[in-house]
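User: Could you walk me through two proteins back to back? I'd like the raw sequence and the structure tokens for each, with a short line separating them so I can tell where one ends and the next begins.

Assistant: Of course. Protein one, sequence then structure:
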Amino acid sequence: MRLGFHISIAGGLAEVVPRAVRRGCTTLQLFTSSPVQLQRPMLNADDCHQFIEQLAAHNIQPHFVHTSYLLNIASPDQKLWERSVEHLSDELRRAKLLNAAGVVLHLGSVGNNGAISPGIDRVVRALDAARIQAQNDVPLILENSAGAGNTLGASIPQIAQILAASQYPNSLQFCLDTAHAFAAGWPVHHPEGLEEVLTELDSALGPERLVLIHANDSRSDFNSHVDRHWHIGQGKMGREAFRTIVNHPRLRKLPFIMETPGTEEDDMRNI
């Protein structure tokens, strides 16, 4: 099993792998720049090459890029949608430079008064447009949501609908976030429920789509639709839920990335 964290890029790419090594990571995820800015400097080719060499030297693989928090490819705001598509295509190009296994993204929100159906259409158009603009084959990894604020991806049928409508379905994969799933009402916290969710995912998306687990406990209640990550075994999901998840034969061969809060010491306890 490959275990790791979302690792800060503060101070530059050269700081990422040392942080991962201190935590005992065998996989990792990162932002390629500040997560609260859509405009960002270009990546330096030499820095990318050194980063890839560092990862190989420490056998940290696969590694993933996560998009900015500001990206919203479901937005009814045309300017924000266009900026989000541009950002996503740039993220695909940056992920290629970093030799990443994929770009993880949230599907966005239609806003409190927005309609879901046109939002799904905007997501599909954005995914396809970003693929065309980037002109590469780096996978886009769609992440499920907790469902707050009319965010898309809180149900498996929504995700399946996006996959079915895309012109490039073979380049789309799926990341299961355990905290988001729990908050959205997916019963992943007990054996029977986890089996039910995985069976539905395989049937609706295809068994090859699930490539990554975001392993996070939840500070929020089941089916609360509130996204609050917490330390493994200390949240509302609990230790037994994660014992089931990490030992499931369908999941144990996948990379597990934690996005738990706190310090390096907290990370050491979580891993």
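----
Protein two, same layout:
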Amino acid sequence: MKYRAYYVTEDNDKFKGKVTELDTADLPAGDVLIRVEYSSLNYKDALSSRGNRGVTKNFPHTPGIDAAGTVEESGSFFFKKGDEVIVTGYDLGMNTSGGFGQYIRVPAAWVVKRPENLSLKEAMIYGTAGFTAALSVYKLTVTGSVKPDDGEILVTGARGGVGSHAVRFLAKAGYSVTAVTGIMENPEKEFPEDEKFLLSIGAKNVIPMEEVDGDAKRPMLKTKWAGVIDTVGGNVLSTAIRETNYSGSVTTCGNAAGTDFYASVFPFILRGVTLFGIDSVECPMDYRLETWSRMADEWKGDNLEELAVECTLDELDFLIDTVLKGNLKKRRIVNLNA
């Protein structure tokens, strides 16, 4: 069966992506063949599309780490033809043909049935970014037992995909959120525009990055936060840990501000702070299903579609370069039928 895909080829260490026609017979082995309705454009997809070997080892390749669509064929007891499903994480779009093609074939263990109250398009507005945010909120509020009455929650990198979804989820759940925005090279850049957006999605306060990039030499700082969802790492994470209240919790899922951070044992042994790492790629299925259920129900905010703009396969090549330059302001949802 023929289908269209954004396909990346290699020629003398030069990588080029274009929309071409492929055959489902060439897809990798798997239990479930899915007709993809929507995907989304992520930074990892952009890296894969330009030959980053840390993401994708072998080419030619179809990127797309997110996919939502309808089961076309199934060798699994758990899925039947016509089921609407979601696939995020695992190896999809990395070394397994991904959601930038109209068909994918994957193991049944990667597949989640679409929850009620969530459309396929809405699932891709969330995508891996929204799922990572939801995992972070779950760890903080359920596993870490941080309650709304405990105090302010800090969300770093709040203007990004993970951070903005985390702000929305927390606000919907009744938490008071302080959102951090700005970039490390220039923390004040575009602050007024970002502040307006973050307040509109539920943040109570918005502060620049420089306010959470504290003195790395001090083992502890004055407490400010009942909990923290950190998406950037580096000294921002270090500062957040040292400013977290007694018995508070911190989650971490990103490294835009650096992979290393200073820490002493004091916040953990004197204040009982807990640090949770968030992995959305190999997340166990029971945990995955619970999180998607909450995203579709109690944490789902209004006007979700306002967070993204649809695009087509033919527009991807230009948009990928825009992502890599850091100039894409709004999430792009790929309509595979357009």
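The domain at 2-117+303-335 is CATH 3.90.180.10 (Quinone Oxidoreductase; Chain A, domain 1).

Let me know if you want the two compared in more detail.
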